[in-house]
Design goal:
alpha+beta, six-stranded antiparallel β-sheet, two-stranded antiparallel ribbon, 9% strand, globular
Length: 509
């Protein structure tokens, strides 16, 4: 990967139209109308001067797309009889109320790879993000650059080998892809049942687009209120390998949501924290939600990782900047990686493509965005103290356990004491569960202000227990006394916090 420096200043101009300006514009337009209209306009202007209000953003530009297809009217009458549950979900949802019908979303061209004939109509069973983008272009473009859109690619790593080779492909098809998604294949003109049904969030669709909007906005109601519920995210972000939902539920935030759910105004079209609701934050509030505050504003985003300054998923946690390219692509870039974080205007060459950097959100900039959410309920001093605690625990995990453990694993492979094949030796299972389960529990727990059950008992307590009781004894068994002594003195002895271990082992041999 290379990058060519060509920095240039860019500014993001925002046009803010106040309610007063809108009212005055209407007042001027109404000069030729009746006197009563003029008086009414003046009254509205006076009201807005005293009580300024926000104008909800219009999500769909009606001038760019049409709906309520005549062909779709036949779909509605048929589905009302044959699949009444589906019809009622649609009818009660936003699409039904706006007369966006079945054919508006499912229509297909005869040349489309997933085209089928259904009762005389040309349709596609899968409604992909490309279809949704006809009305929801902004949201789809944001999603394209998100970590969610890379969910299928993630399965190409060690987890993929564990699933497909060690356990079996069928388990992956009915397990992993439920959340991650997979490539949907067409066999003899029909959707391959081995790859569909499939609403995994990173699904690769027959039309080449990536994603499944129904992973969060379940069909056919597509309810905003449902998507804003923590349990929607918890469908995938839960369990002892990444207990985000459990951590949230045990936190003060989760307690408040459970107590005040009915006050959350979840059905609101505009959902601004501190204005439309304030009783508790949900996953959506912090990772996606809109903010209008004294310190600054945030718009809704479908890049759920945009405000995250740590990547807590891997063996070793990393702070990452967010690089945004002119073509809309987004990429998280390790702050302390082998390559320097690029700057605005730089040309980055990767995988045979050259892209120009439009914007870079550094670690502090990403953290500042999340802070804008937090300070709706907390003081800035409180938020900074929280981040100090988060950084301290993640650095403890990294420096004391993750980095030396990974270094020992690498050293053993370089010495030929471990094979290059993953999971064929007991030590590899011990290490995998140490960082993948216990390590994630600890890091997820502190990040979501969970109770000690996740940060400590299922987290750092388990990390330490597995490291000293399972990992190191197995390393010693494999390496032998002399090599084990070399490994521990090289990778552990000078690290703060391991001295007790060396003191305890004096005289053992």
């Amino acid at each position: 990967m290379t990058r060519k420096s060509n920095s240039k200043a860019r500014g993001n101009n925002k046009i803010l139209i106040s309610k007063v300006e809108m009212t005055m514009a209407l007042w001027r337009k109404s000069l030729g109308d009746l006197i009563s209209h003029i008086i009414a306009g003046a009254l509205v202007a006076a009201f807005c001067l005293v009580f300024p209000v926000e104008v909800a953003a219009v999500k769909v530009d009606a001038s760019k797309v049409s709906w309520d297809s005549p062909k779709g009217k036949k779909c509605k009458s048929c589905h009302r009889k044959e699949t009444p549950g589906l019809w009622n979900e649609w009818h009660e949802g936003a699409h039904g109320k706006a007369d966006v019908n079945c054919y508006d979303c499912h229509q297909a061209d005869k040349d489309d790879v997933d085209h089928i004939k259904h009762k005389g109509f040309d349709i596609a069973v899968i409604v992909s993000p490309s279809d949704c983008a006809r009305c929801h272009e902004t949201e789809v473009n944001q999603f394209k650059g998100s970590h969610h859109s890379k969910a299928v690619a993630i399965l190409d790593g060690i987890d993929n080998f564990l699933g497909k080779e060690i356990v079996g492909a069928t388990a992956v098809d009915t397990g992993c892809i439920v959340c991650h998604g997979s490539t949907v294949k067409i066999e003899d003109g029909e959707l391959d049942p081995a790859t569909w049904p499939n609403t995994g969030i990173g699904r690769v669709n027959p039309d080449g687009s990536i994603g499944s909007c129904t992973a969060c906005h379940t069909r056919h109601r597509f309810s905003k209120a449902q998507a804003r519920q923590p349990t929607t995210c918890g469908r995938c972000h839960s369990g002892d390998h990444q207990p985000q939902l459990e951590s949230y539920n045990s936190s003060k935030h989760g307690m408040l949501f459970a107590a005040d759910r009915e006050k959350m105004n979840l059905e609101s079209d505009q959902w601004i924290v501190g204005k439309d609701y304030y009783d508790a934050p949900t996953c959506t509030t912090c990772h996606m939600g809109q903010v209008k505050g004294v310190a600054g504003d945030l718009e809704v985003t479908h890049d759920v990782g945009e405000r995250l300054s740590w990547n807590l998923r891997g063996e070793v946690s990393q702070k990452e900047a967010l690089v945004i390219y002119e073509n809309g692509d987004r990429e998280s870039w390790p702050e302390d990686g082998d390559e320097d974080v690029p700057e605005e205007g730089d040309e980055v060459e990767k995988d045979g493509k050259t892209r120009t950097v439009a914007q870079v959100l550094g670690v502090e900039a990403r953290r500042e965005r999340m802070t804008l959410v937090c300070i709706n309920c907390h003081s800035e001093i409180y938020v900074k103290a929280f981040y100090n605690q988060l950084d301290s625990l993640v650095e403890l995990y990294n420096e004391k356990f993750a980095k030396p453990g990974l270094a020992i694993m690498t050293d053993l492979k370089e010495r030929g004491l471990l094979t290059r094949q993953d999971f064929d030796e007991n030590l590899e299972w011990i290490w995998y569960e140490l960082w993948r389960k216990a390590g994630r529990n600890a890091r997820s727990g502190i990040a979501m202000t969970a109770t000690a059950e996740y940060t400590w008992w299922q987290g750092m307590y388990e990390v330490a227990k597995r490291f000293y009781n399972d990992f190191l004894p197995e390393v010693e068994r494999i390496a032998g006394d002399q090599v084990y002594k070399e490994l521990t003195e090289k990778h552990l002895k000078d690290i703060e916090g391991h001295q007790w271990y060396f003191e305890a082992r004096k005289g053992k041999n």
